[in-house]
Amino acid sequence: MINLFYVSISGNTRAFVKRLCAYADQQHAKNADAYQINAVEYSESVDVSIMDHPFFAMVPTYLDGGDGINNGYQEVMTLDFRDELDAGNTENLLGIVGSGNRNFNAQFGLTAKHYARRFNSPVIGLFELRGNDEEAVKIYTALTNYQKDFEQRGVKRALTH
Three-state SS string across 112-123, please? Predict the structure, then answer.
């Protein structure tokens, strides 16, 4: 089972998670060894025990304007989720999946990149807005590969050693 802890502001991330879980269920129906996904959406009242086990985080990108390079790299809207991760057990955080709008160039997926640095966990995939079937396959494959790697090695991949 892959544990996925995510935040959705406008519903785009939630829609992608539904698509991703549906694809995982299809794969599991074909092969009982294929991972299913236990997805938990963050809210102020959510049970955060998902962080007691290896998990992935998924975050949308909402920034304060600018170009993401010289300015406009301050995240907004996902701060409560970030604070929850700060307070939780990020030793179990295996990786970050991010979303955004490719029209914003350098800002695309920037929140996921910030989280990766902050929590020393790799960005394992990015998707645009609500995502599509191709992105769901790509993200599922990445989640599966990282989960298998963790189960075999017993240690998460990190940005630094």
Answer: HHHHHHHHCCCE
In whole angstroms, what is the distance from residue 94 CA to residue 29 CA?
Answer: 25
- CA-CA distance, 4 to 38, in Å (whole number)? 6
pLDDT 10s digits, 68-83: 566 655 655 566 777 8
Higher pLDDT, 116 or 101: 116
pTM for the predicted model, two decimal places: 0.88
Distance CA 4, CA 93 (A): 10
Task: Classify the phi-psi angles of 46: left when phi > 0, otherwise alpha if psi is within -120 to 50, otherwise beta.
Answer: beta
Give the domain ranges of the chain: 2-44+51-146
- The string of DSSP letters for 124-158 reads EEEEETT--HHHHHHHHHHHHHHHHHHHHHSS---
For strand 55-59 and strand 37-41, is the pairing parallel, antiparallel, or unpaired? Answer: unpaired
Statement: 2-44+51-146 belongs to CATH 3.40.50.360:
yes
List pLDDT tens digits, range 114-149.
889 989 999 999 999 899 999 999 999 999 999 999
